[in-house]
Amino acid sequence: MKRFYLNAVVLLTAALLFLTGCVEDKDSISVDKTVIEVVSGGVSFNVTSNVEWTLQQSGDYNFSVSPKTGVPGSTDVKVSYVPNDTDQARNSILTIAGGSASAQVQLIQNPVEFSVSADTLKFSAQKQTLALKITSNTEWNVKGITIPQWISSITPEQGSGNGELSITVNE
Length: 171
Prior knowledge:
This protein is mainly β and 171 residues long. The chain is 12% helix and 50% strand. The strands form four sheets. A five-stranded mixed beta sheet has the order 2-9-8-4-6, with no helix packed on it. 9% of the residues are buried.
């Protein structure tokens, strides 16, 4: 009788090990960012999966996305875009799907904002430096403009976001 119980326990254990060893892993896809707000340039996010996947894009704007397919493992997906010079935000949903799994990334590109604190600056007849405050959500520069000889310097020549531009004039 003991031998029967021992055989039954061994058979049950073997059956359980066999059955649990045959269970397939669940399909999974995950992303390291679910909402990305951008202005101009490029950004990337990471897809981690145990299945092959494809990327579909929907929304009111199509961003440049690469790659659009992937294999199991970890893949960096790059998104590039031009500045949004409209007055409306651009939105897109990237859906990454494979097998029975999926994940989404929402891209939001706000319009470019740029303004300076004054339309004109009044300088005295002596050497003087005045400043303009810049309010911006993107990169900016003063390169490529013709600067009159009576202006000795404009610094900095470029920046990103909010900043201050110092303009120095000669005597």
